[in-house]
Specification:
The chain is α/β, with parallel strands linked by helices. The chain is built from eleven helices and twelve strands. The strands form four sheets. The chain has a five-stranded mixed β-sheet with strand order 4-3-5-12-6, with helices on both faces. Strands 10-7-11 form a three-stranded antiparallel β-sheet. It has a two-stranded antiparallel ribbon with strand order 1-2. β8, α9 and β9 form a beta-alpha-beta unit. α2 packs across α4, α3 crosses α4 and α6 crosses α11. The longest helix is centred in the N-terminal third of the chain and has 31 residues. 28% of the residues are buried. It binds 2-phosphoglycolic acid.
């Protein structure tokens, strides 16, 4: 329907939103009585409102053939206009709901320990953008994060490898290379293309049972029928880094745990490394994510570029 601004204004002054809603229902259902039923109105009310709208438009909107009503050409145009209008109003309502939801709310995240090297930065940006949202981050190892996931305690989980025994959605969002770390003054520090058998002969510092990093390292060696010489088990990436720097042995860690400028550690050039892995945003399959959680997922997928850049 092509209208000048003044016709538009005239139409909007005289036709009510309710009349358009009633007209749309009659047009869609092809019946005054069914429209009345759907809208919980009496049939005379529906007929009267359509009549008033017809007067405003100045052209018949329906023609009756037997029991069924058909749209006239003007009716078809108005019907298309109504659909468009209602779609726009729906979108506006959704935006309003989102704005309300994002002005306040809570977001619970559980991430495996290595996530603490990059996740707080993403959360920092997220909190700046949505200051009303309260964020909690539970940092724990893979096994505990899995327990929390099974108990549905958090909105989003961060894993270095999606769980295989729980049905989940897992979105890869950042590379997570695992490297062999050694003290900067280690005899292999400058060696090139070190065979993994050589690494397996070094004293090895292993993360605690339940750690995803440990799982990945164990798998890597097992697939090559090798077993690292575990000298010590330590319960955190930082403890391992300190022990490696202190010359107690080598280890396999996420490259994210190594800060630029930390001169006392090096990543060794070992054949087969880095192990190519990813960080995943994970939530139970079928879980209805809150607006806040959904927004965070989209935000993290975008913001990750910033983190990638900062880690270079
Ligand atoms: P972790 O997890 O902190 O349990 O070792 C890291 C990972 O799963 O990659």
């Amino acid at each position: 329907m092509v209208e000048s601004a003044s016709t538009h204004a005239r139409l909007m002054r005289r036709a009510t939103f309710r009349q358009l809603e009633i007209f749309e229902a009659v047009a869609r259902l092809g019946s005054f009585s069914r429209a009345a039923e759907t809208l919980f109105l009496t049939q005379p009310t529906v007929s009267m409102q359509v009549r008033k709208l017809t007067d405003v438009i100045g052209m018949p909107l329906f023609e009756q053939v037997g029991k069924r009503v058909y749209l006239t050409e003007a009716g078809r145009e108005l019907y298309a206009t109504c659909r468009e209008l209602f779609r726009t109003v729906d979108a506006f309502e959704m935006t309003l709901a989102n704005m309300r939801g994002l002005r306040q709310g809570a977001l619970h995240i559980a991430g495996v320990t290595t996530a603490e090297y990059f996740l707080p930065r993403i959360l920092g940006h997220f909190c700046q953008r949505y200051p009303g949202i309260e964020v909690s981050l539970e940092v724990t190892n893979r096994e505990h994060a899995l327990e929390r996931l099974r108990a549905n305690l958090d909105d989003i989980y961060i894993f270095g490898q999606p769980p295989d025994d729980v049905d989940v959605e897992a979105l890869p969002f950042l590379e997570n290379p695992l490297v062999v770390v050694a003290a900067a003054n280690h005899e292999l520090a400058r060696a090139r293309r070190i065979p993994v058998e050589r690494v397996a002969r070094e004293p090895f510092l292993m993360r605690e049972p339940g750690s995803g990093t440990r799982l990945a390292a164990e798998r890597f060696f097992a697939e090559r029928r090798l077993a690292p010489r575990v000298r010590m088990e330590l319960g955190s990436n930082e403890a391992i880094k300190q022990a490696v720097a202190g010359g107690l042995g080598v280890s396999v860690l996420s490259a994210h745990t190594l800060r630029p400028g930390e001169g006392d550690l090096v990543a060794l050039d070992v054949i087969g490394f880095p192990l190519r892995r990813h960080w995943y945003l994970v939530y139970p399959h079928g879980k209805q994510l809150s607006i806040v959680a959904r927004t965070f997922v989209e935000f993290a997928l975008r913001d990750v570029e910033v983190v990638r850049h900062a880690n270079k």
